[in-house]
Write a structure and sequence with these properties.
Keywords: Membrane, Transmembrane, Transmembrane helix. This protein is α+β, with helices and mostly antiparallel strands and 356 residues long. 42% of the residues lie in helices and 21% in strands. The chain has an 8-stranded mixed sheet with strand order 1-7-6-5-2-3-4-8, with helices on both faces. The N and C termini lie far apart (77 Å).
Length: 356
């Protein structure tokens, strides 16, 4: 503020001196005043050009924050027109105390068609369980991530068609080398440790640029993880695409390609879809004395936590909630992912690898 006032004052003085010199005409005093005024103007112009460069040179390339700078990141998100990227177990900004403000800023960015890319850890992965251990076991990382994903799903449903095209969220299964919070070319990075807490208040956060150094490295790691075939979209996290190979020697006309809800428990893959269970029953009834019906099925992508080698054939079968000892664990996994089933019980099926 004082610098600006000084520059303004010097500018005014130089103008007055030059006007006085002009009024004095071609005299010694007039020439002296003209030279003095030109000198002042030169000083003002030099200061106006050089000062920003000096300030920039004095600004450190990396600013260290001892807690996550929520307000600085929201300001950066509000000010960018190019891109927003977030990578971590889950965004710090989705903590309950900050969630509303963060989603409002994110909504405005998506409405303005600013590309938004967010990477969140798969809550069913070993890495999520490791995060629980890293936090001392006091916080359940998987439960927190499930809550965050449900919140993102509800929030994304409020977006317009144009805003929806600007917003992308993917789920990955292995911890990245670092966290990334990027808006434009400004980045905030931090590293995972064995004593992190969930809000990042005991982690060093490095504010820098993605044009070089740490910011460039973490941004490159983001892009590689984003493009990995092991990373799935938010839609694929909620519903897995599969192809059911129904028998062709029956009169039934049943759809083969489906997208169904799923969860992993104890290494097994379980589906929740009432229509699919009904169609499986229809297929069983069309084949007299067939016993337990197991229908060949192909998955649209690998599922984290499912004990399958990726090569063995798969079969679809009904899951007996009343007799199967895994029923409690499967129900808990479904409730954690999709919320409590309430009074209407879910219709469950299981996909099993066929032993070779």
């Amino acid at each position: 503020m004082r610098y600006s006032i000084t520059i303004a004052a010097l500018t005014a003085v130089s103008v007055l001196v030059l006007l006085w010199a002009r009024a004095s005409g071609e005299t010694f005093s007039g020439n002296l005043l003209m030279n003095l005024g030109a000198t002042v103007v030169g000083a003002v112009v030099t200061a106006m050009v050089l000062q920003p460069l000096i300030e920039r040179a004095q600004t450190p390339e990396v600013i260290v924050h001892l807690t996550f700078p929520q307000s600085r990141f929201l300001d950066a998100m509000s000010g960018t027109a190019s891109r927003i990227k977030i990578m971590g177990a889950w965004p710090y900004s989705m903590e309950p105390a900050h969630r509303r403000a963060f989603l409002e800023v994110l909504h405005r960015a998506a409405d303005a068609r600013v590309p938004v890319q967010i990477l969140v850890l798969d809550p069913s992965s070993d890495a999520a369980r490791q995060r629980t251990s890293d936090m001392g076991g006091a916080e359940d990382a998987s439960a927190t991530i499930f809550d965050v994903l449900i919140a993102f799903r509800r929030w994304s449903e409020s977006l317009s068609a144009n805003a929806s095209r600007a917003f992308e969220l993917k789920v990955f299964s292995a911890l990245p080398p670092a966290r990334l919070y990027l808006a434009g070319n400004k980045a905030i990075c931090s590293f995972f440790g064995d004593s992190d807490n969930r809000d990042g208040s005991n982690v060093r956060h490095y504010e820098t640029s993605v044009l070089g150094g740490l910011g460039f490295y973490v941004n490159d790691a983001f892009d590689r993880l984003w493009d990995s075939p092991e990373t799935i979209t938010l839609t694929e996290h909620w519903h897995i695409p599969l192809h059911v190979v129904w028998r062709q020697d029956t009169s039934l006309d049943i759809e083969s390609d489906r997208r169904v809800g799923y969860a992993v428990a104890g290494g097994g893959l379980f589906l929740s879809d009432q229509q699919l269970l009904f169609d499986l029953g229809q297929a069983a009834g069309a084949v007299p004395r067939s016993g337990l019906v197991q229908v060949p099925v192909r998955l649209g992508h690998r599922v984290v936590g499912f004990d399958w080698d990726g090569q063995s054939p798969l079969r679809l079968a009904a899951f007996d909630r009343a007799r199967d000892p895994r029923a409690e664990a499967v129900t808990a996994a479904m409730n954690a992912k999709y919320g409590s089933e309430g009074q209407v019980r879910r219709s469950l099926l299981e996909i099993c690898p066929v032993p070779r």
